[in-house]
């Protein structure tokens, strides 16, 4: 009877010291795991961003095939916009009228135009997308844009970039031109410690090339004429 009574008695609860030890262990595990989880999430976002750029690059290729090998215009914030802009982003225009829209989806899915790591609220203009196109390829010369046949080494020439949220202001990446005032730079949001857009030497971003493929490249490479000048061998 005594043994049964003893077994049926109430077990003592945890002491305060034991609870504090458990809480401390949990906090330590969280502090160890959070950076790894953050890196894994960012790696997933980078992959999704790269997939977006591949899709956009293929859409440009199909557009050019249907339009005598000419690229669409760069959506450079011209008053009222131009019908042949690759993306119609101004409030008064419909995204579905973007020249590459028929080659992506109907209706146009705006998420294809956004990097999942891009904090859109940090954009300083009405342009709420993450990607912009190389002005040197989509610029207007003699009332026409460049043709695909004019681009030398298309697998090396940047067509679309993931631009920094600190500098993106329209659909046109034109750091080399007066239009860009030397300030349009590709993003380093996937290397968060280097997002400072005034540092042209550090950080990496996703870009799509003229042959349709996409890569994760260094910011410094984007300033090399071998990659941004379509007429350079």
From TrEMBL:
Gene3D superfamilies: Glycoprotein, Type 4 Pilin (3.30.700.10). Residues 39-152 form the DUF1559 domain. GO terms for biological process: protein secretion by the type II secretion system. One of its GO terms (cellular component) is type II protein secretion system complex. Keywords: Membrane, Methylation, Transmembrane, Transmembrane helix. InterPro entries: Bac_GSPG_pilin, DUF1559, N_methyl_site, Pilin-like, Pre_pil_HX9DG_C. The chain crosses the membrane at residues 12-34. SUPFAM superfamilies: Pili subunits. This is DUF1559 domain-containing protein.
